[in-house]
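To: structure subgroup
Subject: Chain for Friday's discussion

All,

I'm putting the inputs and outputs inline so they're searchable in the archive.
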Amino acid sequence: MIDLFNVLAQATTTSAPATRASDPYAFWRSIFPLILIIGVFWWIMSRGRSKERKRYQQMLDSLKRNDRVQTIGGIIGTVVDVREDEVVLKVDEGSNTKMRFSRAAIKGVVSDASTVDEKS
């Protein structure tokens, strides 16, 4: 047991190797790959977000009468009128209930399975 303590004591008293002061760019050379990887990941993620944003804006711009859409609240309705910043949806065929929503509240266009069957 005492031999173990002697070995540990000798290991801690050895001097540390001298630092290399001759290479002032060693820090930048070691951190450059990390900066490069972070930059590539940031570029890939921002490109994906911008593509999704463009696709969503294109969908909003192409809204027209009789499109079936779903709002971010989950309401599904048929587009009756498209205005500059609003969309009027018919949400109930029986009572002819219409609701106004902001264009930003539209989540997407819904494809009806029943209309696909009727066309076939």
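Points worth raising on Friday:
The two ends are 86 Å apart (CA to CA).
The CA atoms of residues 35 and 97 lie 56 Å apart.

D.
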